[in-house]
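User: Design a sequence. Structure:
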C-alpha cells in the first residue's frame, strides 16, 4: 500500500498525525508520514510514534519490498497493543533530520562543482561522502571547499519539482549518481533544483535555502579504486 509522503512537499514538518493501516516486518505502516525512509544515500528517520496504548521509539524508517510502502521500525517487536485504524502521532528527531537536510543539499552543490559522474555517496549527520569517477579532472580540497562555501553564502533558493519519465529518459545526463537511479514507473520523478546551479532527480529532504547549510569543509579526498575518488565533506558547525 502506497504511503503518502508528506516530507516530499514539506521537509520541515516535525510532527504529524496519521492512521495505522498495517503492521509489517516489525514496524507500523501509516496512511501518510513525515519520516524519510532510507534511500538515495540518506539514512532513514528516527523519532517517536505514539498510539493510544504507548509512545514507541522509531529506530529506523525503511521502504517495504514494493518500494512504495513506508515502514516505521519500532523499538519492540510486540505490536499487539497497536490497532489497525487507530490514530498515531509521529514526531521526528528533528536535529538529526535537519543535519541530514543540510548535508544532502551541500552534496548537491558539490555535485554541481565536480562535473564528473558521481558513482556513489552516503549522508551522515555531520560528515558525508560522494565518490566520483574523475577521469583525470584535478580537484583540490581548498578550492572545492571555497567554491561550495561561496554557493552557501549566496543563500540560493532550493525548490522541489517533478519531471515526467519520458523527459527523464530523454535527458539521462540529469541523473548524476549512477548507483542511485530514480524510481521510474509512476509517471513522474521528483526533482530538486538549486537556483542557477544544480538540477537533478532526487527523493531526499533538503533545506529551503543554501545559507541554512552553514560553513562546510572538504576534509579528505581519497582514491577508491583506479578511477574513483572519495570526497568527504563535514559541517563546520553541526
Ligand atoms: Zn539528492
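Assistant: Done.
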Amino acid at each position: 500500500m502506497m504511503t503518502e509522503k508528506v516530507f516530499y512537499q514539506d521537509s520541515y514538518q516535525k510532527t504529524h498525525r496519521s492512521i495505522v493501516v498495517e503492521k509489517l516486518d516489525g514496524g507500523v505502516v501509516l496512511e501518510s508520514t513525515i519520516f524519510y525512509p532510507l534511500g538515495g544515500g540518506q539514512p532513514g528517520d528516527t523519532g517517536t510514534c505514539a498510539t493510544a496504548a504507548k509512545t514507541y521509539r522509531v529506530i529506523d524508517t525503511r521502504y517495504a519490498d514494493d518500494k512504495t510502502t513506508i515502514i516505521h521500525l519500532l523499538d519492540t517487536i510486540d505490536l499487539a497493543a497497536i490497532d489497525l485504524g487507530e490514530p498515531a502521532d509521529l514526531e521526528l528527531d528533528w536535529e538529526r533530520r535537519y543535519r541530514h537536510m543540510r548535508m544532502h543539499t551541500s552534496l548537491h552543490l558539490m555535485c554541481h562543482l565536480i562535473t564528473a559522474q558521481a558513482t556513489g555517496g552516503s549522508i551522515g549527520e555531520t560528515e558525508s561522502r560522494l565518490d566520483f569517477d574523475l577521469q583525470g579532472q584535478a580537484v583540490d580540497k581548498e578550492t572545492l571547499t571555497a567554491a561550495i562555501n561561496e554557493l552557501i553564502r549566496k543563500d540560493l533558493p532550493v525548490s522541489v519539482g517533478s519531471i515526467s519519465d519520458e523527459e527523464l529518459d530523454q535527458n539521462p545526463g540529469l541523473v548524476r549518481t549512477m548507483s542511485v537511479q530514480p524510481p521510474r514507473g509512476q509517471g513522474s520523478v521528483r526533482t530538486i533544483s538549486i537556483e542557477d546551479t544544480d538540477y537533478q532527480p532526487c527523493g531526499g529532504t533538503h533545506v529551503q535555502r543554501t545559507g541554512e547549510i552553514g560553513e562546510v569543509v572538504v576534509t579528505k579526498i581519497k582514491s577508491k579504486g583506479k578511477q574513483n575518488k572519495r570526497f568527504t565533506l563535514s559541517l563546520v558547525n553541526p
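The pocket of zinc ion is lined by residues 40, 104, 108, 202, 204 (CB under 6 Å). Residues 94-113 form the longest helix (20 residues).
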